[in-house]
Description:
Elements: E1 22-25, E2 31-39, H1 43-50, H2 53-59, E3 63-70, E4 73-82, E5 85-99, E6 103-112, E7 117-129, E8 135-142
Antiparallel strand pairs: 1-2, 2-8, 3-4, 4-5, 5-6, 6-7, 7-8
Amino acid sequence: MRHRDDDxxxxxxxxxxxxxxxxxxxxxxxxxxADTVRLDTDRHQLWAAITDPETLATCIPGAESVxxxxxxxYTCEITRSVGRVAVSLRGEAQLVEVHPxxxxxxxxxxxxxxxxxxxxxLAAMELQEADDGRVALSYSAEV
Length: 143
């Protein structure tokens, strides 16, 4: 990936926050994740980064590809291992609510070829100017 002076800073510019962990394991089998990171950029540059497939592929752990199908649809392939658990996902996502550069809500589905499981996700990202001049990127997901 190439970086220009007007590109948003790489992920290393974010506060070193721990990786998102399930906030609760629910009896309905849905896991919820949420976190907020602060980045040294502005909302418009960050919005451009999070809607660019090439940039997304570098931000999603295990992403092998992220492709834009249309203005609101993406496909992706992700292979990820955590300890002895591995997934190989092929899926699609649709931006169901888009309000640049404030927030986006995404609904997606994927098939894990290693386990034969189908996954559904509902995710949201919100960008807010922080008091320190940086941008707070808050995200949440239910899987």
